[in-house]
Write a structure and sequence with these properties.
Monooxygenase; three-stranded antiparallel sheet; 21 helices; binds protoporphyrin IX containing FE; heme binding; four-stranded mixed sheet; 11 strands; iron ion binding; Cyt_P450_CS; alpha+beta; Cytochrome p450; monooxygenase
C-alpha cells in the first residue's frame, strides 16, 4: 500500500521504519550522560560534511577554535569526531587517559585493504602490542646508534648531489630518506629512484595520505563495494594491490637472500628474526606488517621536515649565518659534523626544533579513537569517536610561542626542555607516540648540520634571472609538504668540495 497526495509515493512500511529510526536517534541523544562539545551546526545525515575543508584543514580547525573552543565536536555522516586544538587537552586525554584513547578509528581505506593489519593503523589490541614491541625494541637509543654512519653518509651524499643540481632537491630528499629507511629495515640498498622497492612504498604513502582523510571514504562506508559510480572502491582495490606489493617484496627479498652478502647488516628485519627464531605463517605476517609500518613512518615524514628546513633557510639567511658561526667554531673546517656532535651544537638543535614546530609533517597526527564513553570537563565523548589532535595549531599557540608564525630558533634561548616540548607534540601522544622518533631526529640533525656547514642557501632564479621566494604554502593530506620551490645552493669554502668528495655511494 502507498501513501499518495502531497507526499511522494512511499510505502507505509518505509514511514514506519523512518519513525523507528528517528525515535532511536531521539532516545540515543537523551540517553547521553552529558552534552557533546560545541561545534558548527550540522545537517541531518550529512552532519558537518559540507563544512569540512579539503585544503589544509588544520588552519580551518584552528579558526574554529576561536569560535567553539579548544575541544570541538563535528559529525561526518553519523561519525563523531572530536577535534582537539590545545596541548593541555591533548595530553589530558591521550597521555593521562591513554588506556581509553589509544585505539585507532576504523579508517575506511585501512578497513578495505591489508594496510589495516599494520600496527600504525590497528586497534589497540594484542597484534598491535606484538608488532609495536618488535619495532620499539629496535629503535631505542642504542638501536638507532647502529645506523648513524648510514644516516651520515646518505645525507652527505644528498648535499653533494644538490650542490651539483639544486633542481633535484625534492626527488633527492625522497630518495635519501628511502635509501636510509629500506637499508636499515631490510638490509637492501636502493640505487635508483625507479627501483620498485622504493617507488612502490612512496606511491603507497602518497595514496594513503590522499585516501585516508576523514572526508574520503566515510561517506561510502555503509555502501556495498559494487555500488556504481563510486570511484573510491576502485581506488581502494588498486591501493590494496600496491600495498601488498610494497610490503611483501622487501621482506621476501631479505628472506631469500639471507645467507648471501647481498643482505646488509645490521638490519631490523634480521634482528627481529633472530629474536623470534620460530615464526609460523602468522608470525611472518606480523613481522612484515611491523616493518611496513616503520617504512611508512620513515619515508615522507622525514622528507617533509627536510624540505621545510631548506624552505625556511631560503627565507632566513640570518639563521643560516648564526648556525654556521656555531658550526665553524665548534667543528672547524677539517671534518664534517656528525650525529655525535648534537650535544655540542645548541643552535643547530634549535634550528631542528623550530623546523618541526614551524610545520609538523603530520599536522593532524594519526587519529586516535575512544574505546569507551568518557566525560571530559562536563562534555560527553562517545565510544568510537575519532580524536584528531591539531598539532599544527598547538604549535602556533601565541600564549606558548610568541609571534608563532615567525621562524625563530632563538625563541628557545638554548633551553632543551622548550625544544623537547615541541617534539613531544610533533611525534604524537601516549602509547601511540612515534616509535621512530630518535631515528628521525638523528637523520634531521645530520642533514641540517651537514648542509649548513658546507652550503649557503638562497632563493632560486626564474627564467629571467630574478630571485623567486617560496610561496610558503603546504600540500593537504595526512602528510604535508611545502609546495615546490626553487633554490640556489653554493659551497661555503674550498674545503667543502674536498670533504664531500670523500663521500661515496655504497656501490660507487
Ligand atoms: C620527522 C619524522 C617523523 C614524524 C614527525 C613522525 C610523527 C609521527 C606521528 C605524529 C605519529 C602518530 C602518533 C599518534 O598517533 O599519536 C607517528 C606514528 C608512527 N611513526 Fe612516526 N614520525 C616520524 C618518523 C618516523 C620514523 C623514522 C619511523 C620509523 C620507525 C616512524 C614510525 C612510526 C610508526 C610505526 C607509527 C605508528 C605508531 C602506533 O600506532 O603505535 N616514524 N609518527
Amino acid at each position: 500500500m502507498f501513501l499518495t497526495g502531497a507526499f511522494p509515493a512511499i510505502s507505509v512500511a518505509t514511514y514506519c521504519l523512518l519513525g523507528v529510526a528517528l525515535t532511536l536517534c531521539f532516545i540515543f541523544y537523551f540517553r547521553r550522560p552529558g552534552k557533546l562539545p560545541p561545534g558548527p551546526w550540522r545537517l541531518p545525515l550529512l552532519g558537518n560534511a559540507h563544512q569540512l575543508p579539503s585544503k589544509t584543514p588544520w588552519t580551518v580547525f584552528g579558526q574554529w577554535a576561536k569560535t567553539y573552543g579548544n575541544i570541538i565536536h563535528v559529525d561526518l555522516f553519523g561519525q563523531s569526531i572530536i577535534l582537539v586544538n590545545s596541548q593541555k587537552i591533548a595530553f589530558d586525554l591521550m597521555d593521562k587517559r591513554s588506556t581509553n584513547y589509544s585505539d585507532r578509528p576504523i579508517i575506511p581505506i585501512a578497513a578495505m585493504s591489508q594496510v589495516g593489519d599494520t600496527f600504525a593503523l590497528q586497534s589497540y589490541n594484542d597484534s598491535w602490542r606484538r608488532q609495536r614491541k618488535m619495532i620499539a625494541q629496535e629503535f631505542t637509543a642504542a638501536g638507532v646508534s647502529r645506523f648513524q654512519s648510514l644516516q651520515e653518509r646518505e645525507w652527505r651524499l644528498q648535499v653533494k648531489r644538490i650542490l651539483h643540481n639544486p633542481d633535484t632537491i625534492f626527488s633527492e630528499i625522497k630518495l635519501r630518506a628511502g635509501v636510509i629507511a629500506i637499508r636499515a629495515l631490510y638490509g637492501y640498498y636502493v640505487r635508483t629512484p625507479n627501483d620498485p622497492m622504493l617507488s612502490n612504498p612512496i606511491e603507497v604513502i602518497r595514496e594513503f595520505s590522499r585516501l585516508s582523510t576523514p572526508q574520503t571514504g566515510l561517506a561510502f562506508r555503509f555502501l556495498p563495494r559494487w555500488t556504481p559510480g563510486v570511484t573510491f572502491f576502485k581506488e581502494a582495490l588498486d591501493y590494496e594491490r600496491l600495498h601488498v606489493a610494497a610490503t611483501v617484496a622487501p621482506y621476501e627479498w631479505c628472506k631469500t637472500n639471507l645467507e648471501t652478502p647481498k643482505v646488509l647488516v645490521p638490519n631490523v628485519c634480521c634482528d627481529i628474526w633472530e629474536k623470534n627464531s620460530v615464526l609460523d605463517q602468522d608470525g611472518h605476517k606480523q613481522v612484515y606488517n611491523a616493518l611496513s609500518s616503520a617504512l611508512g613512518g620513515g619515508l615522507d615524514s622525514n622528507a617533509s621536515s627536510a624540505l621545510t628546513f631548506f624552505m625556511t633557510m631560503i627565507l632566513h639567511p640570518e639563521v643560516q649565518q648564526k648556525a654556521q658561526m656555531e658550526l665553524d667554531t665548534i667543528i672547524g673546517f677539517d671534518r664534517l659534523p656528525d650525529i655525535n656532535d648534537q650535544s655540542r651544537l645548541p643552535y643547530v638543535r634549535a634550528v631542528l626544533a623550530e623546523t618541526l614546530r614551524f610545520m609538523p609533517p603530520i599536522p593532524l597526527c594519526i587519529p586516535h579513537a575512544l574505546k569507551e564513553d568518557d566525560i571530559y570537563e562536563g562534555y560527553f565523548l562517545p565510544k568510537g569517536a575519532w580524536v584528531i589532535p591539531n598539532i599544527w595549531n598547538m604549535l602556533r599557540d601565541p600564549i606558548v610561542y610568541s609571534d608563532p608564525m615567525t621562524f625563530n630558533p632563538d625563541r628557545y634561548k638554548g633551553d632543551d626542555k622548550a625544544m623537547e616540548q615541541v617534539k613531544n607534540l610533533v611525534f604524537g601522544f601516549g602509547r601511540r607516540g612515534c616509535p621512530g622518533r630518535l631515528f628521525a631526529e638523528n637523520s634531521l640533525f645530520v642533514l641540517i648540520a651537514t648542509t649548513l656547514a658546507t652550503c649557503n642557501i638562497s632563493p632560486g632564479l626564474d627564467e629571467n634571472g630574478k630571485q623567486v621566494l617560496p610561496n610558503g604554502n603546504y600540500t593537504s593530506g595526512t602528510i604535508s609538504f611545502p609546495e615546490p620551490f626553487k633554490i640556489t645552493i653554493n659551497p661555503r669554502s674550498t674545503n667543502t668540495d674536498a670533504l664531500l668528495a670523500e663521500v661515496h655511494e655504497l656501490y660507487e
